[in-house]
Amino acid sequence: MKGIFVIILLICSLSVYGQTEKRPLWKIQLEGALDNYSRWEVEPSVTFQPFKYAGIGVSFLFSKSLDGIHLNGVSADKKFRFELNDEKVLSTHLACRIAPQFYTPSWILGHDQEYALYLTFSPGITCSFPPTKHITLAYFPNSTGVWTPHHYEEVTTSRAEPLSFQLKTSVSLEIEESLIISLGYTLSNLDPYSGLRETVFDGNMLNLGKKRPFFHSLSIGIGWRF
């Protein structure tokens, strides 16, 4: 009798192990978002999910201002006018996000139960880089006419806040345990312009608007589980 009981337990254990092995452990995803600084974002990510309701993800965030940032003015001695040599340096933002992910049990949908709907909660940190930026200003004679740059000057921005927290929640629809479509919302204390707000450019400061109390973004994504 004990032998039969042990065999049954062994079969059950192997069955559970086999199911665990067959469950997809990896997810890749690409998300696009719009935040409350009027910037669009692109965020590819990879997630490892060793447990049914928990995993950890790493993503890389690239964002850009919709209108860009324009920097120009007149030097303190009024002899030159200056402008930013490359606006992309200021208007782009790169960051890495690391966060554990927690999943709710799925609601199974569809005639053949091919759809699964669930929520994801993901608290984590955002690491922005580089913390400082080197910006080149081109100086032109401050008089009427078309001029080539008289000289260039390099300015180093103030040190940005390197780390910030974020809390992300999303609702995902998974199709046949592979294709994933998701809608997400992120709350953070990130200030994408923290390294620029206190930087002085030849006696001038950028007009970046008021810092928001919190950073918000809405995203849509598509992913693949394997």
Summarize the helix and strand pattern as letters.
HEEEEEHEEEEEEEEEE
Structural class given helices, strands, pairing?
mainly beta
Widest sheet: strand order?
Answer: 1-2-3-6-8-11-12-15
Mean pLDDT across every amino acid position: 84
- The helix content is 10-25%
Measure the end-to-end span: 41 Å
Shape: elongated
Contiguous runs where pLDDT drops below 50 for at least 5 residues:
3-20
Over the alpha carbons, how many angstroms does the gyration radius reach?
25 Å
Characterize the main sheet: 8 strands, antiparallel, barrel
Number of E strands = 15
> How many DSSP H or I helices?
2
Strand content: over 45%
How would you portray this structure in words?
The protein has 226 residues and is mainly beta. It is 11% helix and 55% strand. The chain contains two helices and 15 strands. It has helices at residues 2-22, 88-91, and strands spanning 26-35, 39-51, 54-65, 72-74, 80-84, 92-103, 107-109, 115-129, 134-141, 151-156, 163-175, 179-188, 200-201, 204-205, 215-225. It starts with a helix and ends with a strand.
